[in-house]
Amino acid sequence: MEQVEKIIDERIQGKALVTENKKENSKKLFIESYGCQMNMNDSEIVAAILDKQGYNTTQVLEEADLVLVNTCSIREKAETTVRKRLQKYNRVKQESNKTMKVGVLGCMAERLKEKFLEEEKIVDLVVGPDAYKDLPNLLEEVNEGRDAVNVILSKEETYGDISPVRLNSNGVSAFVSITRGCDNMCTFCVVPFTRGRERSRDPKSILEEIQSMVDKNFKEITLLGQNVDSFLWFGGGLKKDFKKATEMAQATAVDFAQLLDMCATQFPKTRFRFSTSNPQDMSLDVIHTMAKHKNICKYIHLPVQSGSNAMLKAMNRQHTREEYMELVDNIYKIIPEMALSQDMIVGFCGETEQDHKDTLDLMEYVKYDFGFMFAYSERPGTLAGKKMDDDVPADVKKRRLTEVIDLQQKHALYRTQAHLGKIEEVLIEGTSKKNPNEWKGRNTQNTVIVFPKEHYKLGDFVNVKVEDCTSATLKGTAVGYSDNN
Ligand code: SAH
Ligand code: F3S
Fold first, then answer.
1. Per the annotation, where are the binding residues?
2. CA dist 330 to 41, 229, 282, 340, Å?
3. Is 128's pLDDT higher than 60?
4. Domains in the chain, ordered, with CATH?
5. Can you tell me which atom of ligand 1 is nearest the CA of 189?
6. Which of 124, 187, 251, 327 suits a disulfide with 383, CB 3.0-4.6 Å?
């Protein structure tokens, strides 16, 4: 099994994004996204901003006036991929499209800033994750023949006032950003540097965006953020400034459990998911809110990174192995059918064989439904990059990664087998990749189910009897519509 990117659908990595074209727009934008779902959603915001500047999207690189690549810095491999794409754009530019402009967006733009212009000669435009509203001005600069850079990180920006243009949408499920940035400073992670400090979006604008999605017949909304459980709205600004807010603002603040409750109550027929939950910020209020609403899906992505206390400490994760296990116990106690998934990093600085065994042991304890596993990749500028020795040899990292992935696959199968014989509600999200006569959807636990299409339609909620499974997919037969239609 290949290493997998978390919450990322590998099939959409680097896919040029298309929107419905407007007749009055004359310029052509080719926009590609790499990395996390947040980047995919940011590209939808960028497309909305550029739509107003006269750009339609295209999938043909050769005909683009403007090429934008939304980049990821999380591991070295992600950056290498983007550099290869830049070489490709360069060839097209030289061979057939001399006036084409190229811009780099997202985390690599933020990390490398002006260096991009020096290192990658073809780049005209460098824009960090908080500066997309400045794109019209920056493009003006570029069109006048100057390079343009804006990598200023913001205290306020949540793009709450921009209604994203949905790109490559299945028309059924969509993502809505609720927080930006991260304050956690895990020592291995570049995100706090590239996406800035944590801030939450006004619940009013979140609910309005969801309403507009529901009006367009969307059936499932995933609330997005680096750390959604840390959501806190008290009138705007950085989370770390909460203590400085007025007493009134503090007293009327909205936390994540309350936001979830508001969403689920206002839109009882809409399914809600959220990602990602940092264990240290996960409150039992959230679990109780999930238990209260049928339309909040029973699945939590709860990255742990390691099962060893020594590693958790070195990573600056704010909880111990024991605290994590207690949280998991409580979750299963309150919602026994809950599905959990992990992110794991193997081979972090100083990881011993015993630390690695602790990780396998923790996995055995939780038996995660899904997992996203990575070998540690040192990132420049992070505390680990500056102060710790990346001392686990590559072959050891590789072997440990294989062990972790193999164990995860065993647990995934254990979990999928538990669905056999049950009748489960599935939201139809598209045609199965393997069989055009079958639908593909997910149950509340986020497990993919395929079943014969019969008379059912995209976007229907259907009860499906589960008859067979692999470690990744359930197979079944529809037995009727669910009561959610
Ligand atoms: N809180 C974020 C985490 C983003 S990073 C979110 O899930 O929205 C996603 C995952 O990448 C992390 O959970 C971690 O497992 C992995 N990761 C981050 N930095 C890494 C590094 N330097 N090397 C390897 N994996 C890393
Ligand atoms: Fe990164 Fe840790 Fe935040 S993994 S995104 S610093 S929670």
1. 36, 72, 107, 182, 186, 189
2. 32, 16, 11, 13
3. yes
4. 10-150 (3.40.50.12160), 173-417 (3.80.30.20), 423-481 (2.40.50.140)
5. 19
6. 187
